[in-house]
Design a protein that fits this description.
The structure is a single chain. It contains ten helices and 13 strands. 48% of the residues are buried.
Length: 319
């Protein structure tokens, strides 16, 4: 590869710029080449509609992929949970770096924990997945909460709490960590309470499939354990025929004995946003050794969830 700067396509949001900046530094280290950020505005950045209403899947991704295919950028960085589950043949998922904390967190007034929120507490989130699980947990534990749909970047969402419009908002731990605002978290939501979005906390580094040299270089940043985990999660999502705005949570945990990874547990959940109906199942087995094996694990758990009535809880099926 020559010394010409590599062009990294990124969304313009503070979070996207932060995570793309971190990837740019890592790519520079492994390639010895400078990396410049190319800011691209996506439909999801300019639309004020709820993600569930504008389709969710791909709204932050399409413009970046178009720039890749036109040769305007050399590679792009996405939040993996924003990627549609179908991978275009002309694009390669060159690297999935080690995952950040996949959990959801609460930022609440008066530094309150989720279970300490007052009766009737208003909790903001744009994700039907979070609404379904928070409402189900509240219902099961005698809590009285109201989930309120919101949009906006991290600053906007946290401001709702500071301005007194909401008692709390739910955000991804990974995002707050990446922009250096982890100290504002007032409670970490256990994955036993709220399963994250499939792929949450992971990044996807994508380039065109015909750039073998670039794929090899970017591949230095790939973490095989993160890749196999998120592949299983996204396979579950795909099998449920659900977009990233559907009320589906999934997490693949790798269990280790010392430094040896022994097993993988894949958990999935789907529910109605009011929390009245929830299907939550898990499966545990050897860590998949191939992409196909990870995909099969997700499909198998989805089939079990369908057998428990998951299809009737999806609302609008996203294709």
């Amino acid at each position: 590869m020559s010394e010409k700067a590599l062009r990294l396509g990124t969304r313009r949001s503070k979070l996207a710029m932060a995570q793309s900046g971190q990837v740019a530094a890592a790519v520079s280290r492994v390639t010895g080449r400078p990396v410049e950020l190319v800011e691209i505005t996506t439909y999801g950045d300019v639309s004020r509609e709820q993600l569930a209403q504008i389709g969710g899947t791909g709204v932050f991704v399409t413009a970046l992929r178009e720039a890749l295919l036109k040769g305007e950028v050399d590679f792009a960085v996405h939040s993996l949970k924003d990627l549609p589950t179908g991978q275009p043949e002309e694009l390669a998922l060159a690297a999935i770096p080690p995952r950040e904390d996949p959990r959801d967190v609460i930022v609440a007034r008066d530094a309150l924990k989720f279970t300490d929120l007052p009766r009737g507490a208003r909790i903001g989130t744009g994700a039907p997945r979070r609404m379904a699980q928070l409402n189900a947990y509240a219902r099961a534990h005698g809590l009285d909460i109201e989930t309120v749909p919101i949009r906006g970047n991290v600053d906007t969402r946290i401001r709702y709490v500071h301005d007194g419009e909401l008692d709390a908002v739910v955000l991804a731990a990974a995002g707050l960590n990446r922009i250096g605002r982890a100290e504002e978290v007032t409670d970490f939501l256990s994955v036993d309470t709220v399963l994250p979005a499939p792929g949450q906390g992971a990044l996807a580094i994508e380039c065109t499939a015909d750039r073998a040299d670039l794929i090899a270089a970017l591949g230095e940043l790939d973490d095989p354990f993160t890749r196999v985990a998120v592949t299983a999660e996204r396979s579950l999502l795909a099998a449920l025929e659900a977009g990233c705005s559907a009320p589906v949570g999934a997490l693949a945990d790798l269990t280790a004995d010392g430094h040896v990874v022994q097993e993988m547990r894949l958990r999935g959940v789907v529910g109605t946003t009011d929390g009245t109906s929830l299907v939550q199942l898990s499966t545990t087995g050897p860590v998949p050794q191939t992409h196909e094996a990870a995909m099969a694990l997700g499909r198998e758990l989805a089939a079990e969830m369908f057998a428990q009535g998951a299809a009737g809880l999806m609302g609008e099926r996203a294709h």
